[in-house]
Amino acid sequence: MPIGKLLIANRGEIAVRINRAAKALGIATVQAVSKADQSMLAATLADEVVEIGPPQASKSYLNKDAILAAAKQSGADAVHPGYGFLAENADFAEAVERAGLTFVGPRPETIRRMGDKARARAIAAASGVPTVPGSEGRVTGIAEARDLARDIGFPLMIKAAAGGGGRGIRVIDSERELEQLIPQASAEALAAFGDGGLYLERFIARARHVEVQILGDGAAVIHLFERECSLQRRRQKVWEEAPAGVLDEATRARLCASAADLARATFYRGAGTLEYLYDESSGEFFFIEMNTRIQVEHPVTEMITGIDLVQEMIRIAAGEPLRLRQSDVRRRGHAIECRICAEDPARGFAPSPGQVTQLSLPEGDGIRFDTMLYQGYVVPPFYDSLLGKLIVWGETRAAALRGIEQALAAMRVDGIHTTIPLHRALAVDADVAALRFHTRWLETWLASNPFALAAS
Amino acid sequence: MALKTIHAPLPGVFYRRPAPDQPPYKQEGDAVAVGDTIGLIEVMKTFTPVIAEAAGRVVKFVAENEEAIMAGQPLLEIDG
């Protein structure tokens, strides 16, 4: 069904991004806002604005009924959930469809199947995609966990089946610790996610995070190559690149093909990402989970392929078949993204909401800044700290790295603290330049580099 | 007995309980000692405890549980 008017059920930079993609397709936009977000950039850009509730996300951006009412009131015929909030909530997707509206994303049953990490693993294994050695599905009871752990080996991870975004994960070093922590982890998972299910997985000490972008129309699936997102703090991505410089062409080809195969097995519709761990020491990659939505770091893929992922996902939701064949997807050069957050890296990344008094942005070929900021904007304290994403493209990784260093130097956000100093330090770091990092590298680096950050 | 007001040190969402399924840190009528946790403020998904800097007894909460608050806004009054 063609989309005439799109409700954007999200905020911040991704709402701005979705608005831009919709407008480019000639689609009118309705921006859902909480009471605290009336003056946000996406609200000023949208054709219409509907208030959906008070500042607290639980009462606004997570309020399914309020969002559906806003869609009805505004006459929107489709809903884009962005990322976070309700983007991977199968019940919400189902409610949107039941209201006779188009959900810009996968079918509710796909979200449900792939959102359950244990089921997703089982689907991957059945499709011949390697998974990290671990339990096949959920673990019931300590005795079973002990038996499995003997096969998997220590250290291993206990993961909440309903977790995600790095939440609900524990690293276990011994059988004794396993016996102690299984009941506790289950109780915590039940409290946090409403589901006490757990599974076990081998812990790869120096793993790199690589992920493959895919697009599917419910039948055909293509991949748009991979990204590397190994620079993380508290399991949150900080810096992302495309492609992953650590992969050779043969490994890249196998990795990307496996992702497309897995997505094809679920008859995937929309934009999605399959996340993998890459073990640099053995050259093995293992599927870990699928995100059934657009991701924060999607621009690095757009920069190397020239494909607008948000426009494509809207077209697919409107019922268009994929416009691209795999052979149409070419990559060129290298892109790096830095997540600019309202946090003070010199003070333990303390949150820093408040007014942006002065804003200067870098400009030039290959520079893109996806943001919610404008001069004078008051960053509210109620939501996550992401202000924007600085993305720089270069012919080579070295050129992209130089470009991001210069773009960061030219960027000024006054009035609040941001993570720009962290990124400036990373952009000139010898290990970053040499691709010598893994998912726990940044936390170690942060522990040993406090002066560099405090001085900048 | 002087009435003292405890103000929010940060803007965000004020919580009176450590978790939704747990009892409030303090009820009206409870004794408060210096250093006691009175509530939490969530700022950008980070939780910061509100610590009492004066002792006394809780007279009343001015801010409700899960209320969106500005920095400096009164949270509760204590008598001490």
Salient structural properties:
heterodimer; A: 456 residues; alpha+beta; Rossmann fold; Dna Ligase, domain 1; D-amino Acid Aminotransferase, Chain A, domain 1; 3 domains; 8-stranded antiparallel sheet; 16 helices; 35% helix; 28% strand; globular; B: 80 residues; mainly beta; OB fold (Dihydrolipoamide Acetyltransferase, E2P); 4-stranded antiparallel sheet
Could you explain the architecture of this structure?
The complex is a heterodimer of chains A (456) and B (80). Chain A is an alpha+beta fold. Chain A is built from 16 helices and 22 strands. Chain A has an eight-stranded antiparallel beta sheet with strand order 13-12-9-10-11-14-21-19, sandwiched between helices. In chain A, strands 3-2-1-4-5 form a five-stranded parallel beta sheet. The termini of chain A are far apart. By secondary structure, chain B is an all-beta fold. Chain B contains no helices and eight strands. In chain B, strand 4 and strand 5 form a beta hairpin. Chain B is globular, with a radius of gyration of 12 Å.
